[in-house]
């Protein structure tokens, strides 16, 4: 959503700009490059979806952005994260905290991580609303109940008084979402918020996310469900082995997945397998194309450089791929047989209530 007029230069810049983000995880026996030099942006009103198999670095990316990742074992080795004109990765804790929870809301993959076990849902939601707005408790409570309804919590007026541990996984995920939204965030980072909910609720949540981005919120969304991506995303980032192998507008990526990994991923129509990657982390090369040992098209050039550079898939396209087959020398690029990609027209909103 671009502003028509009166936009100051500050507003012309993306809401979020991430550059060269690298996060390693130190364990007793080894150090894993969980996120290995990634760049991307999220605009106001835009939905950017991150897809990729289990272990590809989606959650570590999200948690690094807000500095919420546990250090140690994690270590943010490099990178800049600019949010609304301010560098937040190197900011002191107070600055970062002031961005977290208000301007930036972070919904963890594990919802209990977003909830405080010692307070009721109502206490947490009322408190969040009252931090951001001068309203009395009763007004905030009514608004809290409304928010719980919006995220699809049945009997919201009584559920508001329960404790987090009394909620199922899917319910906790939605409650955590309601609490995030109570802060009226400018950017919502949501790590698999629709995973353990039924289709009806999923359709309702997708509607809700659309309304929020229509009114200007930026949304960074992690999911394994390509149908959700099709229904929601403006742009897609495909991750493999801690790197972004392909990115672009959702229609283009779905119509013509360019990276051999994306092609493979999209052939398993619908939900990406939740299995851990076939190769263990140790088998993923540390430089060059991370996918090359599993790629049917591997050539010598795949192991050159730190990562293959990004090439446009078509001339002057925002759809780019990090694969040497697109450098103009090694063509023809591997092309997926037509018809195997997911139809991006899939409409989730038609599910019966
Ligand atoms: N606390 C941790 N200790 C050790 N390794 C970790 C830890 N957290 C993440 N990792 C490693 O970092 C890599 C990236 O993990 P991440 O959780 O970001 O994957 P993901 O893409 O979110 O996967 P999923 O789809 O399963 O949520 C993986 O190899 C994972 O094993
Ligand atoms: Ni994850």
UniProtKB/TrEMBL annotation:
Gene Ontology CC, one term: plasma membrane
Keywords: ATP-binding, Cell membrane, Ion transport, Membrane, Nucleotide-binding, Translocase, Transport
Keyword Nucleotide-binding carried by entry: yes
Gene3D superfamilies documented for this protein: P-loop containing nucleotide triphosphate hydrolases
Record's keyword annotation contains Ribonucleoprotein: no
Positions with biased composition (Polar residues): 340-353
Description of how the protein assembles with itself and partners: The complex is composed of two ATP-binding proteins (NikD and NikE), two transmembrane proteins (NikB and NikC) and a solute-binding protein (NikA).
Organism for this UniProt entry: Natranaeroarchaeum aerophilus
Signal sequence interval, chain numbering: none
GO biological process: peptide transport
Region listing for Disordered, in residue ranges: 334-353
Top enzyme class: translocase
Protein name in UniProt: Nickel import system ATP-binding protein NikD
Molecular function GO terms recorded: ABC-type nickel transporter activity; ATP binding; ATP hydrolysis activity
Domain of life the protein comes from: Archaea
Main location: membrane
Membrane topology: Peripheral membrane protein
InterPro entries: AAA+_ATPase, ABC_Ni/Peptide_Import, ABC_transporter-like_ATP-bd, ABC_transporter-like_CS, Oligopep_ABC_C, P-loop_NTPase
Protein localization: Cell membrane
Its EC number(s): 7.2.2.11
Catalytic activity, reaction form: Ni(2+)(out) + ATP + H2O = Ni(2+)(in) + ADP + phosphate + H(+)
Domain ABC transporter intervals: 16-266
